Each structure stands twice: as C-alpha cells, then as structure tokens.
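Retro notes, item 3 of 5
We never archived the inputs for the histidyl-adenosine monophosphate complex last cycle. Fixing that now. Sequence and ligand:
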Amino acid sequence: MTSSTDKSAPQAGARPSRAAIKAVRGTRDLLPDQTPLWNRVEAAARAVFSRYGFGEIRTPVFEATELFARGVGEETDIVSKEMFTWEDRARAASEKAQSLTLRPESTAGVVRAYIEHKMGETGALQKLYYIGPQFRRERPQRGRYRQFWQIGAEVIGPPSSGSESPLRDAEVLEMLASLLDELGVRDWRLELNSVGNADDRARYNVALREALAPVKARLCPDNQRRAETNPLRVLDSKDEQDQEIINGLPKIADYLGEASREHFAEVRAALDACGVKYHVNPRLVRGLDYYTRTTFEFTVQTGLGTQNALLGGGRYDGLSEMLGGPKAPGIGFAIGEDRLILVLQEQAKQDAEAAGAAAGEEKLDVYVAPLGVAQNAAALALAKELRREGLSVEVGDGSFKLRKSFDVADKVARAIVLLGEDEVASGVITVKAFATGEQVKVPRAELKDRLRVR
Ligand code: HAM
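Structure as it came back at the time:
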C-alpha cells in the first residue's frame, strides 16, 4: 500500500529509501540464546556417529539440477514444486551455461560424490554423515522452513562390502534410537515399512494403476496426473479429499516378493534383538523416488504439531546406477534439526513448568568489573589470564557506575570480580558469587580455582 507518507516510495530528488531489510520468508536467524542447544545437538550427533564408525562428508549446497531430477524423481513434490533453481550463465569460455539448484536434500549429492571419487573401488563399506542446510520452497509454518538443517548419514558400498545386509538397516535404526535417547527425546515412535525391490514395485505399480483407473476422475488434478506418471506418489498425497480413496488402495506389503519379505523380516528380528521398538506402517512410502525395501520415519507427539516427522530415511539400492555409477546399495536417513530443536525446547519448557522454574540459561563464569577507567586495561589483562585458564569471561567498563556493573554481571555471569586501584596494587581481589551472595577477597593466584567452583 502506498500513501503520501510511505517512506519506501521513491521520491524525485529524495535519497534512496532506508526501509529495514528482513530475512527472506521461510528463513531465520539463530541468535546466541538459541545456538548453544544447536551446538549441543550437533556435538552429540558427531560423538554418536564416530562411535558407529562414520566419517564426515561435506558436499556443495548447490548441484546440477539434473542430479535431483534423476535422483529424487521428477514427479516428487520436491522436484516438481519446491526447488530453488536458476539458469547459471556461462561467464568464461571454460564454463557452460547450466541449470543449478540449491540442494533440497543431501543423499543425491553424497551418492554423486561417492561415484565421482570412486569410493566404491576401495571395496569397503562407506559410512558418511553430514550436517548442513537444505532448501525447499514449501509453505512456511512451525517446523517447516525454506532453509532448514539436516543431520544425516548414509551407509553405501559395493554389495561385496555387506551394504545390502539387513544388519545395516537395523544398525542405522538402533543408532538413531540411541541418539534420540541420549538427547533425551522422550516420546519418539519408529514407523517402519518395506517398499520392496524394483520388481516388487513394478508389480505394485500395475496393481495401483488398475485400482486408480476407475476412481481417477474423482481425484485432485495433481493426483490424476500422478496416477498416470508415478502412481506411488498418490500414496503420499496430502490432499484431504483424496484420503478416502487412498486408504482403499492396495498395500505394498501384499506385493513384496520372497527376497524382500525375508530382508524385511531380518531387519525386524535384529531390531527385536536390540530392543528397538517399531510400528509397521504399510502406508509409509516416503516422498522421494529412490527408496527400495526398508523405509522409516521417527515421529514425536510433543512440540511439532502437524509436522511431526522428526526424521526420515530408507534404503536406495538403485540410486547409484540411476546417477551413472556402479552398483552400490545403501541406506541412510536425515534428521530435521530444526524440528529436533523444537522438540527439545518444548520438553525443556514442560520440565521447567513442572519444576516451577524458568528454563535454564547458560551463564558465563565471571564478569570482571573495573571500578574506574584507570583499571580498564588491568581488567582486560585479568580477563585474558582467566580465559587462558578456560573460564568464560565478560569485561565491563570503568565508566559504569558500580550498581550498573552488578546489574549487568548478574544477568550474564555467575560471579563478579571487582577491580579497583587497591585490588590492582595489592593483588587481592574481591569476588562475589551470585548464587550464594557470598563476597570474599582472594589472592589473584587463587582466583581461577575459586571461580571454577559451581
Ligand atoms: P525427507 O523426509 O525429505 O528425507 O527429510 C528428512 C527430514 O528433514 C524430515 O523428516 C523433516 O524432519 C526434515 N525436513 C524436511 N523438510 C523440511 C522443511 N521444509 N523444514 C524443516 N524440516 C524439514 C530426506 O531428505 C532424505 N534425503 C533422507 C534420507 C537420507 N534418505 C536416505 N538417506
């Protein structure tokens, strides 16, 4: 809306507008009051991954569009509607014009890297993990963003490395259960299914097409198209009016061949042996085309509302070949890190409410307060000394009134150190711990030990 007072409307001879620029829809800033939890989650994930023999891989955030078209599938919502894609012009003789896309997920990029670096030629099973942003142009809501973070892992290798073994599937699922337990996620639920191998899927597709033909006209336009091009995608349609028809469609479980049924049974037996609870959900086909055999999602009841899928994954035994690589069966998953954080924050809030306390915030070890401008330099030197000892320190300014120093210190630190002319001269320093209110004078050499006591 433009009015005569609208500051953003350019005016003749006026200086350019200075309207504040906001973060783009569906993207967010993570500020220092939030990032400690993100770092804790990432550190826990890295520690668990390393215990299971995974190494980190970092792939580019943008790739050739064709990678996702071929890998994730043209008919998926991700590729057909949600990608940030642009035509990149050639700028030098050595460059080609090409269509590029911000990665909507990382499995296709990891498998591309596996092929490009001939990682299969070592003969060994590759266990790779990644932590990074992904991009999908979805309608933003709680737990759904256009830039979001995933913590994911892939196990991939030539069949001779054991990459097809049901043990791999069970190990990945047991690792996820352990990670969620370690992080304290309380009410997770593992939904499990098998979508069969390529032959099973071909038979199932025929059955789906047959079942869809007489009801097609009653489906929404998107599902009418999918019924022709990729009937499996009708199953993960969120169109509410189509759900009744979808619920009546044949189930993949009835089309699994002997080999797929056996593989799935062995995955379940290994999970039972490890005590990992699961619920077989025959409707779980997942929204990406590369899946074969085992598919899964972990959902939660607390904190996510309708976006209750905390993570998803499965096997992708033909993906490497689809991308022009050697036979390299694999299985992996991606955790929605934004969603995991929401769940942990919600749980912490509930716990704090139950305990009648405010959710805990992290504080620095000490605030060093110079009592006059003349002590500023000495305060900075003392802060340096304490930081070298591993303490976290904030330094005030000698122009502050003592009252203000106490107020600021109480907000950010567990203790305050007062540094006046006497303290600098005598080397005996006044410390006050806020939790107890205790104020003592200690020799400078003992200060670090006193501050470490919590
Ligand atoms: P996905 O199910 O598309 O699978 O995404 C995995 C998880 O990422 C979801 O369960 C959800 O928690 C999170 N997620 C997805 N979209 C958004 C969004 N717009 N905002 C916030 N979080 C989101 C994959 O991406 C596969 N690459 C997983 C995989 C790895 N399969 C095999 N290996």
